[in-house]
Structure formats: structure tokens, C-alpha cells
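Consider the following assembly input.
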Amino acid sequence: MLEAVLLTARPIISEKMYLRLSSDELAIQDVFRAFFEGECSIERVRGANQLGFDADAWSRLAETGGPGMCLPENVGGGGAPLTSGAIVADLVGTYIAPLPFIEHLAASRLLASVAPDHENLPLLASGEKIATMGLQPQAGSASSLIPAGAIADTAIVFDGDNLLLETAGKSARHVPNTADLPLASFPSGTGDLLASGEQAREAFSRARSEWQALMAVALAGLGRKAVELGVEYAKERYQFGVLIGSFQALQHGFASAITDVEGAYFLSNRAISALENPNGSGEKLAGMAFLFASEAAMTAAATSLQYHGGYGFAEEYDIQLYYRRAKGWPLQLGDPGLEYQRIADLCLPSGKVA
Amino acid sequence: MDWSFPPEAEEFRNEVKAFIAEHLTDDVINSTHDGTIHNWDFHKKIAERGWLGGAVPADLGGGGKSALEMAVMVEELQLAGAPIDGMGVAIVVASVVLELGNDHLKEAIVPKLLSGETLVSFGYTEPDSGSDVAASQTRAVKDGDEWVINGQKMWTTMAHIADYVLLLTRTNTEVPKHKGLTFFIVPLSTPGIEIHPVHTMGTERSNATFYDSVRIGDEWRIGEVDGGWEIMKAALKYERGIAGGQFPSPPLIDAFIEYAREASRPDGTALVEDQLVRERLVRAMIDVEVCRGFAYNTAFLASEGVMFGVEGSMTKLFASESYKKHSKWFIEMAGIEGLISLGEETAPVGGVLDEHFRHAPVTTIYGGTSEISRNLIAEGLLGLPRTR
């Protein structure tokens, strides 16, 4: 009888945790959930292979207005707030979608903020062209890996003083990697100058914060789905004559993992909200949410993989896809240890008090 | 998802901050170090503002402060490290009595509770029933118009300064354990009650209370005979709303930053310049922001009339477990000096590193252990089977 109950019980995580979305936001979620369900099924994710990009899915996303949803309407964007973008980012994480939604959104908004009339903006809003950005300042002309570098048409790079719009070369070579990401080096130091000095620094910092906050939301979505996969498995798998989901060792591991994930979900959405309503805390909260969500997603995926036993290690099971992305997505920003120090500089005093 | 508080809640936040600046003196905080975690003067000043009564739902006759205003008040008091256990108890008991109590209890208890004159101690736990609270064995037997109570309760914290105990008893042994429970609010002055101190490794004193043929009238019963579980659920409902426990770490973090700006590493650099120290401080501050997310989420849900359950377990689990981790980090990073006890002149930042390290373990135990919280999350949120 216990088994009958178990087999009909479905994870109810999502419904509960989305209680606070407004009716408009729920409508956006419905539309995009249908999109991801159709265009980013796990078969499509696997089909994107190591490149980690599904061009057909991107075209379909463009038809929904997704790529330009948070760009100004006068360049053909949807004029939606960042909170709407966050709803899509959550689904990007849930479906581990092979789409550069977050990079494109942050980079194209960065372009719009420093060059509101730039000729590329309508093409970015429509999704005909893909934009990305370097997430760390890159000095000189040294070429380095950037997120979505293998598929982007343009990339915005900050060299410490100048914000440059770089154009993809013909030779961008995709580099196979841990998380099936479209990583490639991008030419740098040769692009068009967009802004300099303080303006460039502030715009870059803002865009990176947006990327961090959206990535944090996506990682919460990823982590939640990873726990769901493990919970579903634990409701089917028998050992010692009982379902393994009845063992408290597993229950407690799942409970701790989902608690961290939901903590990441709330914090990352607070960061998005803070970026929308400038009160000075957006940059700090975005960095904090990013760091916390990175660990929460990784713990969730690793816990869930562990509870799959040997099958978790098998390519055939989906949890390994989540495990690799949980590490790879946030690591595109660089060593988290440096990010902790950057946030420390934002929040902590330095220097000795006599 | 909008996370901004309405203007009236932010105005109220300023009012609470001003109140704290005026009334939460060092003397008040130090007074709680003698083992009594309550400060009557501070408690009465909160009551004088009408904030105890304000927290009681308006449809029960209270001041009906909004859920968001209550969240703001509880947040600010915790951030400042104010003693609020008494406040929590007063609001919970007053709310339960107003919702489910009889007229006698409403008249005898509620006005004194809300004016800050009296306190009630929680009498749920027993020597042989902690997490399994429904296994309570303290017996209440009807004798004519009266009840005769025999048994023992553990962790009746504040009983030595309270006038009443909210007592969970067994009135029926012939039915499943949840269905044979009855609650009373028992005056602690009733003959047959003894209060013995239970000293702890933290700064707080608790109590064991003994009940030997304690006779009380039926007017002290709250809820139906054998219907005690309904009272338990109501008490937990109100406790989740206001009891706090979301922000145990900020006073410790503030104190450690103060210490880290004065103390040095052996090479002479300030502790606050050390990269490991800075990373751990940021990690602790992130954990506090996570707690804030949980706390605000439940406050917004409550303000929309949504009854939450498992969210409260998550908040409690995360806040207490992270606090315990922080208390360990910060005493470590002070090295041998971190060990110096409260009250010693040479203790770093007054000895609070030692104090928090000693106090933190109880927070993952009381009010539902971390293990019980994880059970509730696994069952309530993930749909995994109940195994107890």
C-alpha cells in the first residue's frame, strides 16, 4: 500500500515555491514552459552534443520574442523588466537548455545601455544575431575563452578601461569542455569602442551583475530539477526489499539540498528585484546570490547523482548532465574564490582600527 | 516577484529601529546573561507600544498589525540581538486563547499577557518525549468538576519567571496518541507544582517542572477534551508567524567584524585583511541574506493569507544550521583568545564568541530539531514516505 501511494506521488516542489508569482508572471511562465517542453526536451539537450547549442530551438525562441524580451521597445524588444527575464532563466536552468539566453540578454542590454541607437540592436532583439560578453576584464589583445564564444556573432569585452564590441572571427574554434558549453576564444582588442572610463566600468559592472543574478536564478532551477530527478528515482528504486526513498539517509540529504536550492531561488529573485529597483544593493545581492546558487546547485546535483548509485555515473541517466552543468555554468565567471574576495571588498571594512 | 515592502512597513521599520536605539541598552543585553533570557523592562516597553497586542490578528480582537509589519519588527529586534523569547510566547499564547479559548481564559490571561505583565511557559516536552511530542504521558484525570494532573515536563524555559504553563497532558490512553491529548493553562502558583532549574552549557537557564496531584478547575482547559492536537497545531501556526529564529547570526557577525578590525595575525596584519577571514565573513553574510529571503517569502505569503508549512521548517533548518557553522568559524578565527569566557575583561568583544559557540547547538534542537525539519521537508515538499 505504501508503494501505491509512492508511485502516484509526484514532486510538488514547483507549484509550492512559485506561489508568489503574479498572474502576469504565471502567464509568462506558462508560455515559456510550453516552449522549453517542446524545444528543449532532454533528447534535444543531448542532441546539441558537446557544442551545447540548438540553432532550431534558438530560432523558435526568437519567434516567441524571447531573445529581445528585456530590450527597449524602440529597437524591437519587448520592453519587459528583468523580473520577466528571470522567469525564463529559471526554465533555462530547469531544462538545462542549450541556448545562450542569459549571455545574450545581459550583453544586448549592455549594448543598449551604452549605445541606445546601435545598428545591431534590432538584430539582437529579433534574435537574428547572438551577443555575448566577457565576464572578466581582459587586458590587451590576449585571446581568451568566453561564454557562448563559439556561437555568438558579437561579444562585448571590457579591457579594464574600454568597452569594445568585438565581431566573431571565422576561426572561432569550439573547445570541448566539462559542461558541453559553446566555449571559444574570441578576438579581442580590435573591436569598436563603445565607452571608456567610468561609464564603461559602470556599464560592464551592471551587465555582469545582471548575468550573475540571472545565472543564479537558472542555477536554482537546475538544482531543483536535479533534486526532482533524484526523488523520482528514489520512488522507483528498490533495495533491501523497500523503496530507497524510504531511507532517512536519503530523505535528509534531499531535504538539505532542496532547502539550499529554494534559499538560492529566493535570494536570486531578491537580487533581480534589487537590480530593477536601484537602492544600491543590486550588485552585492547579485554576487551573493550567484555564489550561493552555484554551491546549492552543485550540492543538489552531486547529492542526487550519489543517490542514483552506479546509474548516476552512467551516460544514459540524465543526472550527469545536471552535475556537469552545475559546475560549468557558474565557472564561466572565473574562480569563485576571487568572487568572494570581490564581494568582501563591497561589504567589509578594511584596515585596522587602532 | 516584488520584494519591496509597502511604505507603511518601512515607516514602521524606522519606528522599531528608533525604539531599539533608545531601549535596547547594554544593560538590557547584559541582564540576559545571568541565565534568565527575558528582560521584563524591555518586554513591558514593547507592550506599552502596543506591539504585543498589535501582533494578534484583528479578527480576534488584536491590533491587527500586518504580517509584513510583524516581520519587519521581528527582523529588526533579532538583528539587534534583543531578548524576544518572552514576546514570542506572549503573542502565541494570546492568539491561541483568543482563537480557541473559553471566556475565563480570555479574561484571566490575555490582558495581562498583552500588557507585558505576565508570561506563560511552554509545557510540551517530557523526559521521555521530545521530538515525539504527542507521546506525552503527563496525566490529567477528571475528578468531579476538577482535573488532577500528575507528571513531569522538561525544558519549561522561563517557568521560574512565568505565572502560567501551557500544559500538554494525556486524558485518554485508549486511542491513538494524537487523539488522547488535552491542553490546560495552569497557574504555576497551584499547590503541587515544583520548578527545578536545568542549567545549560549556554548562558540560559531552563527548568524541569513537576506536577504532583495538581488540582485545577475545568475553566483552565483550552480546547476540547482529547482535542489537544488542534491546540498544538494552532500554537505552531502562530509560532511560525512571529517566533523569530531567522536571524541568529547578525549580532555575532557584527561583533566579529569589530574584533577583526582590532586583532592581528602573527605577522601584524589586521585579521579583517586576511583572505580566509574575509571569505568566511562573506559566506556568513550570504547565509543571512538567504535567511532574509526565506523570512520575507513567508511574510509575503502570510500577508496574502496563504498558510505556509514546510517553508517554516526550511527557514528554521537553514538559519540554525548556518548559525552553528558561523559560531564555530568565528571562535576558531580568534584563536586561543576566542575561548575566553563572557565576563572576563580580556575576552574578545566581551566574550560573545564563546557565548555564541555555547548557545548555537540548542538552536538546531529546540522548536523542532534539524532532523525533524528534514523529515517534514522530505514528506511535505518532496512527497517521500513518512517513516516514523
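Chain A touches chain B through 63 residues (CB under 8 Å). Ask yourself how this observation constrains the way the partners meet.
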